[in-house]
Amino acid sequence: MTTIAERDVALVDLVDRLLGGGVVIAGDITLSVADVDLVYVGLRALVSSVATAEEKGALPRMGHAL
Amino acid sequence: MIELYAITDDPKPPAPPLQAVQSDGLAVLYAEAERREVTSETLWRHEQVVEKLMAERDLLPVRFGTLVPDAHAAAQAVAERRAELAISLDRVRGAVELAVRVETREPEAAPAARAESGRDYMSAKARRVAKVRLVHDPLALAARESVLHPGPELLRAAYLVDRDAVDDFVALVRRLQETHSELDVLCTGPWPPYSFAGESS
Amino acid sequence: MRDDKVLAGPLELDPFAPDRARLENSLTRRVNADPESVERGLAQLVLTIVELLRQIMERQALRRIDGGTLSEDQVERLGRTFMELDKRLEELREEFGLTEEDLNLDLGPLGRLL
């Protein structure tokens, strides 16, 4: 039997996926997405790919400035 | 308007009220769109539909809330990205997604904030990264692919795991939890491969 | 089917629970278009990008330290730079009345950015 806690916890992963993942096909999206929201969508995808790329050692090392 | 649920190359037709429209070997699974408020219940219901489909075929889930005018429009949208979608389908074939989140009992800010020197600050950060790797590295090895997601947790990641390797993966998660009792390790799923449906990183 | 999504987890699931009110609110969110919130929204966006860059740079610095190619002095300076940046960001956040949570950015339906 699922407790409320388990459902709530799974909800975080559900929202992450349904609204932030999946195939993006040009279409009318029911959620109101303002221009600013679209920037955040892009940022989020960027963060994911950067984090994953770093993890795989695919990003170049920093310059000497620092 | 119709709402898109998933894309597949399996020819098996879906059960009503879902329908399929074909496009050069790929099928888009859809249903009539309903006007509704977006609540957690709506999301769960949508998810149930996709998971039922996934139980019978490999697929790429479509982002929630994707509406197009009709089947023709859906077929066209898919045709435009046929090659890329076919690659993604191959990528996820025979696999499902598992979500993992890890939290540490030690608040992140504390050690770094207490740092008295630059060296201490970097050491505290390094310890945090090391903790993440303790869990992520073995899981990544046990999965086909993995992707790190932004999130407030120490680790928030998605793993693409062979359908028949899910039990072993979960057993590994449990072992890691036992080994690292100072961490909280959570695994949910199986999910349709939302995190692996886009372009390969 | 949705009933068994937790496959493994700690006894206390609290650390992983969502801020329920915030989640439901963001799912039915209306976009607020008044000028003050637009400015605040922009500040939030800019500071988030800076915070994002800070995290990326910090992680890259850690990799270099790990690689053992930096002197003690360089490590110290790197650490101090990031500490300063952290502090400066905190000040900027306060200036705009933003909390760390705000910068962690509730993306509305899309969840947190960082």
Could you please describe the fold and organization of this structure?
The complex is a heterotrimer of chains A (66), B (201) and C (114). Chain A has 66 residues and is mainly alpha-helical. Helices cover 58% and strands 3% of the residues of chain A. Chain A has helices at 4-20, 35-55; one strand at residues 28-29. By secondary structure, chain B is an alpha+beta fold. Chain B has two domains: 2-92, no CATH class; 95-199, Alpha-Beta Plaits (2-Layer Sandwich). Chain B is built from six helices and nine strands. Chain B has helices at 40-56, 71-80, 82-92, 109-114, 118-142, 166-179, and strands spanning 2-8, 19-23, 26-32, 60-61, 66-68, 95-104, 145-148, 155-162, 183-191. Chain B starts with a strand and ends in a 10-residue tail after the last strand. In chain B, 43% of the residues are buried. Chain C has 114 residues and is mostly helical. Chain C contains four helices and one strand, in the order βαααα. At the A-B interface, helix 1, strand 1 and helix 2 of A face helix 1, strand 4, strand 5, helix 2 and strand 6 of B.
Question: How far is the first residue's CA from the last residue's CA of chain C?
Answer: 30 Å
Global outline of chain C = flat
Mean residue pLDDT of chain A: 68
Number of helices of chain C: 4
What is the chains' assembly state?
heterotrimer
The H-and-E topology of chain C, N to C, reads as EHHHH
The topology string of helices and strands of chain A comes to HEH
What is the helix tally of chain A?
Answer: 2
Number of DSSP E strands of chain A: 1
Largest sheet of chain C: none
Rg from alpha-carbon coordinates of chain C: 19 Å
Distance from N terminus to C terminus of chain A (CA atoms, Å) equals: 54 Å
Question: Into which percentage range does the β-strand content of chain C fall?
Answer: under 5%
Q: What does the main sheet of chain A amount to?
A: none
Helix content of chain C: 55-70%
Low-confidence stretches of chain A: 29-36, 61-66
Structural class of chain C: mainly alpha
Mean pLDDT of chain C: 76
